[in-house]
Each structure stands twice: as structure tokens, then as C-alpha cells.
């Protein structure tokens, strides 16, 4: 198993997923739903006790390669739900969890490679006619794509791709979400850094019509998060508390796939270590964010 005392590379994460699924076949299914540009696996986990008609939460991590705390949290969440099932069976008995811990595996590997770049953000696809590689998956989703805050040039760090869903990884995440969208009521995508609990929209300063509900749940979730170690999060729409950035996965999950409670969670820290959050903060980060997720799960259970 992983220990969350250091950051795990892609092979270690894949081994963890396979072993945990093999050990808990009645709770966890691990599948590969496609290959990235460079041929790495797109890993997909379902955590469920079976049955039909259950509501679901979709979780992803690792859209941005350098945000190592994201796969570190999402893998820990998988472990908590599966290995620690008996401590809180209600979260799996009543909710199906669909989880993709590393949706940008090429980029993630590149941040670990000796001749790579620890601060790489994008995917690693060749852009025709350009020396620069990669697409920012979080500018590549097809809901109000290219309407602000995204790059049109391939050498930019926030390059939105040549068309919506141009990156194979974005297509695979789209299809995975679409396949369970009708039962999903929450979409959570984990990033760093800044300590923000963000709601749509990222393409406009306008508020979603159900913003009051999105905000209310976020406040209660963040209250529990902060209660653990005093870590403070800012809550609001991406555009209004962070910046305009169109083509994000959260905007598409809500506006395109119709999942009402879509959030981007920017975890620790606020800039001291930024993307290079020391590994000795992984467990504390995960414990506090887990408290927020319990609030989200309780709300989902109250929706029946
Ligand atoms: O810019 C982003 O993609 C996210 N911040 S990060 O530092 N992790 O890169 C924020 C995305 C918020 N959501 C949307 N703008 N839709
Ligand atoms: Zn990010």
C-alpha cells in the first residue's frame, strides 16, 4: 500500500489500485478506461456495495501534473472508503463513488522524471507545427470553451487546445463522467494550491441559478475542514474569487453533464511551498479535506 508520507509516482499508484481492488472485490472495482497520449493507463475506480438506483459522487485528481497533493489526496480517499469501510459504512452503502485519481498521467510522470520538469502543468501531446508540448486539460472542456482566461497558443501554460476536447485525456474524462452523469449529484475535482473551495462558473462572473445551494454546502463542508487544524479556505465562484478561466472540468460537469454540485477544490497551501507542498503535510491535508467530504456525502444521503 501507499503510506502518504511521501509522494507516489504513477507505477506505485497503479500497483496500489490493483492490490486494493484485489483485496476488496466486493467494495472496489479498478478498470482502465483508455490510454493517454503517451500510452499510460487512464485508471478508473468504482467504490460501491452494489444495487441500483443509488446516487453517485464523481471525483478526479491530477488534471494538473505538478499538483502532487491532488493524487495524494484522491488515492487516500480511495483507501479511506475501502480499507476503512467498517468505520463509516454509510458512505459506501448509500453512495456510489467513481474516482479517477490521475487523469493526466503523462504530465504526472514527467514531473517525476529525472530529465523532466517538476513544475509541468499540461498534458504531453505534440502540437502540430509547434516546438511546445501539451494542452491544459482544465481549459479543454467543451462548455463555453475559449471564452476567456485560456491560451490560444501552444507554448502557453494554459493552452486550451485547438478545439474543445482536443486532448485524448480530456475526452476520456468526459466519457467517464458522461457514463455516470445521470446518477451523479456531485463532481469534485482536486487541485492545488490556494485553499479555495470553488463553484462554477469559471467562464463568466455571472452566478449559477442554484448558487445559494452550492454555496451553502461549501460553507458547511469548509467549516468542518477548518475545524481540524484551522486551515482556512476561500469560497466562491472561480471567476469571482480567483480568475476567469473557461473550459474547466467543473463548468462542463455542471453545465454540460448536468451534475448540480460541481466543485474545484484547491488544497494546501497558500503559497509558501505552492505546488511543492512538503510531503509531511499530506496526511494533515487529507484528514482535513476528508472532514469536508463527509459533509458532502451526508448531504447526498439526505437527497434520497
Ligand atoms: O486555473 C485552474 O485551472 C485552476 N487553478 S490551478 O491553480 N489548480 O490551475 C482553477 C480552475 C477553476 N475552475 C474554472 N476556472 N472553471
Ligand atoms: Zn490545477
From TrEMBL:
<feature type="active site" description="Proton donor/acceptor">
    <location>
        <position position="266"/>
    </location>
</feature>
<feature type="domain" description="Peptidase M14">
    <location>
        <begin position="6"/>
        <end position="300"/>
    </location>
</feature>
<comment type="similarity">
    <text>Belongs to the peptidase M14 family.</text>
</comment>
<protein>
    <recommendedName>
        <fullName>Zinc carboxypeptidase A 1</fullName>
    </recommendedName>
</protein>
Amino acid at each position: 500500500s501507499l503510506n502518504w508520507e511521501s509522494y507516489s509516482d504513477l507505477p506505485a499508484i497503479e500497483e496500489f489500485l490493483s492490490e486494493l481492488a484485489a483485496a476488496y472485490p466486493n467494495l472496489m472495482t479498478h478498470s482502465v478506461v483508455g490510454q493517454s497520449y503517451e500510452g499510460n493507463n487512464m485508471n478508473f475506480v468504482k467504490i460501491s456495495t452494489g444495487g441500483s438506483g443509488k446516487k453517485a459522487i464523481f471525483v478526479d485528481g491530477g488534471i494538473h501534473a505538478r499538483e502532487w497533493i491532488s493524487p495524494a489526496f484522491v488515492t487516500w480517499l480511495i483507501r479511506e472508503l475501502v480499507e476503512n469501510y467498517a468505520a463509516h459504512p454509510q458512505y459506501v452503502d448509500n453512495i456510489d463513488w467513481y474516482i479517477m485519481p490521475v487523469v493526466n498521467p503523462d504530465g504526472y510522470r514527467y514531473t517525476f522524471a529525472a530529465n523532466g520538469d517538476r513544475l509541468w502543468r499540461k498534458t504531453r501531446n505534440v502540437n502540430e507545427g509547434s516546438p511546445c508540448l501539451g494542452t491544459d486539460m482544465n481549459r479543454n472542456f467543451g462548455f463555453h470553451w475559449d471564452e476567456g482566461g485560456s491560451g490560444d497558443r501552444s507554448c502557453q501554460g494554459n493552452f486550451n487546445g485547438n478545439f474543445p476536447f482536443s486532448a485524448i485525456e480530456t475526452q476520456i474524462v468526459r466519457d467517464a463522467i458522461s457514463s455516470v452523469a445521470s446518477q451523479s449529484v456531485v463532481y469534485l475535482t482536486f487541485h492545488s494550491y490556494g485553499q479555495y473551495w470553488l463553484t462554477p462558473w469559471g467562464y463568466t462572473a455571472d452566478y449559477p441559478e442554484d448558487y445559494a445551494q452550492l454555496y451553502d454546502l461549501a460553507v458547511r463542508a469548509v467549516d468542518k475542514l477548518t475545524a481540524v487544524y484551522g486551515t482556512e479556505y476561500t469560497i466562491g465562484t472561480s471567476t469571482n474569487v480567483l480568475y476567469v478561466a473557461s473550459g474547466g472540468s467543473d463548468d462542463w460537469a455542471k453545465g454540460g453533464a448536468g451534475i448540480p454540485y460541481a466543485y474545484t477544490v484547491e488544497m494546501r497551501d497558500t503559497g509558501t511551498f505552492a505546488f511543492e507542498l512538503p510531503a509531511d503535510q499530506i496526511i494533515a491535508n487529507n484528514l482535513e479535506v476528508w472532514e469536508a467530504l463527509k459533509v458532502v456525502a451526508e448531504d447526498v444521503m439526505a437527497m434520497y
